[in-house]
Write a structure and sequence with these properties.
Blueprint (H helix, E strand, L loop, with lengths): L1 E2 L5 E6 L2 E7 L13 H10 L18 H14 L3 E5 L2 H6 L2 H4 L8 H11 L14 E6 L4 H10 L2 E5 L4 H14 L10 E7 L11 H10 L3 E5 L14 H4 L9 E5 L9 E5 L1 H10 L1 H4 L6 H15 L6 H23 L11 E7 L2 H12 L2 E2 L1 E3 L9 E6 L6 H17 L26
Parallel strand pairs: 3-12, 5-6, 5-7, 7-8, 8-9
Antiparallel strand pairs: 1-2, 2-3, 4-10, 9-10, 11-14, 13-14
Helix pairs in contact: 2-12, 5-10, 12-13, 13-15
């Protein structure tokens, strides 16, 4: 789908047919991806001196002042010491994680001593000790980019139940007490990898509990805020602001510009030592072409708007409008009898369809009614949990949402999709600790 004019409108190509539809599937959370001619002209004029692209890496001749301005702005927005931006969101995860952790035996000694300097030393190691390998504890519903980065790193990977603190603490306790397999040597690093908002579930990470466990067992935390930065929190600063936490408690903050900022690319933020290390050792920094100047300017303008640095309150209005749209849409779906997943603050709203045979029928019927949705089935989800995923935007008007809800109500009745007897989700956060078995 390509947004045209208004954030809620879109064009979807199906074969040779063009449909004007209400866009309920894209990640345009704050509406900054809309086709505004004046805005695009301003971006073009601002970046005229740079051209469309730089065709070089930032370590060669692709480092522009506009890139450095963006990184300073990102660090200020997040409340951290430093940040680095990348031209591709997926590669921000997949190419940076291997630079942070590794197998140990396969990596040069000097590289690990460099890593040790920025990420600190756990209770199981001391400065200058020989590398002993790294352990990644990954949420079972993490994005593919996180999974790929973990696998490329060569580190040992263990998966804990989604958002379940019992499962995570059990693995942390075993890792600290037992050490590495066979040798029982202490792990050099234990890295917990989670997302702010999970894009297929709509659930929000239990960040306060995870930070408490991280401190208790002296582990490190990698937080992917691709879907949460800009979309949650009173001023759009993500899950750390949502839970009123100190950003310094998160060792590695990652996010993308492809959702709330209506652009492309991603960032890694945290301590200056961390960022300086990645500038030299990250494959995404060393080998990838620098971010396009017009894209960079788009991100700067969107972020300044959210921060109020443009002299207006438009940014905070969009953040509040998104929150209002999210609460309204979720409440109406529950009233209709649909089973939905996710947190009430999450603009990602999955509706459970359950039966694989109804997935295509639902998508086609909604498209026939001029509503563009994303449907997901096996293997992206369990075979019995096929779903339709709706993404709310600040650009959606109340009239648009009511129109979508009207058609959803009719389609839900026609396809028998209203499974809830209680008129609300039986699994609002997609976990139930009272029904969890620890596996040995």
């Amino acid at each position: 789908m390509t947004t045209t004019g208004h954030s809620g409108a879109a064009i979807q190509l199906t074969g040779r047919t063009i449909h004007n539809v209400i866009n309920m599937g894209s990640y345009n959370y704050l509406g900054f991806a809309e086709n505004n001619a004046d805005f695009l002209k301003t971006v073009a004029d601002k970046t005229l001196q740079y051209g469309v692209g730089v065709c070089s890496t930032r370590q060669e001749i692709g480092n522009l002042s506009i890139h450095e301005d963006l990184e300073l702005l990102v660090a200020e927005f997040l409340g951290v010491e430093s940040s680095m931006t990348y031209g591709m969101g997926f590669a921000t995860n997949s190419m940076n994680i291997p630079a942070l952790v590794g197998k140990g035996q396969a990596a040069p000694e000097q590289a690990y001593l460099c890593k040790q300097s920025f990420i600190g030393v756990t209770a199981t190691g001391s400065p200058g000790t020989k590398p002993r390998g790294c352990l990644i504890l990954s949420d079972e519903l993490n994005h593919t980019s996180l999974i790929l980065g973990a696998r490329l790193s060569g580190a040992t990977i263990r998966v804990f139940k989604h958002n379940n603190m019992q499962s995570l603490e059990k693995m942390l306790r075993e890792a600290v007490s037992s050490g590495q397999p066979r040798t029982h040597r202490p792990w050099k690093k234990i890295l917990i990898m989670v997302e702010g908002i999970y894009s297929m579930e709509g659930s929000v990470v239990r960040l306060p509990e995870i930070i408490a466990l991280k401190k208790k067992y002296k582990a490190y935390l990698y937080l992917d805020e691709a879907h949460s930065i800009g979309a949650v929190g009173p001023t759009g600063r993500g899950v750390t602001e949502l839970f009123d936490l100190n950003p310094a408690d998160v060792d590695v903050m990652m996010g993308t510009f492809t959702k709330s900022f209506g652009a492309a690319g991603g960032y890694i933020a945290g301590k200056k030592e961390l960022v300086d290390y990645l500038r030299i050792h990250s494959h995404s920094a060393v080998y990838a072409s620098a971010m396009s100047p017009p894209v960079t300017e788009q991100i700067i303008r969107a972020m300044k708007c959210i921060m109020g640095k443009d002299g207006s309150t438009e940014g905070i209005r969009r953040v509040r409008q998104l929150a209002e749209n999210t609460r309204y849409f979720r409440a109406r779906l529950k009233e209709m009898g649909f089973i939905i997943y996710g947190n009430n603050d999450s603009p990602v709203v999955p509706i459970l369809l359950y039966m694989p045979g109804k997935v295509v029928a639902f998508a086609r019927e909604m498209l026939r009614r001029k509503i563009g949705v994303v449907v997901v089935g096996f293997p992206a989800t369990p075979i019995t949990e096929a779903r339709a995923r709706f993404c709310l935007s600040a650009g959606h008007t109340r009239a648009m949402l009511n129109q979508v809800l009207h058609h959803l109500n009719e389609v839900g009745d026609a396809l028998c999709l209203k499974f809830s007897r209680q008129k609300f989700s039986s699994r609002p956060d997609l976990f139930d600790e009272t029904d969890f078995e620890l596996h040995s």
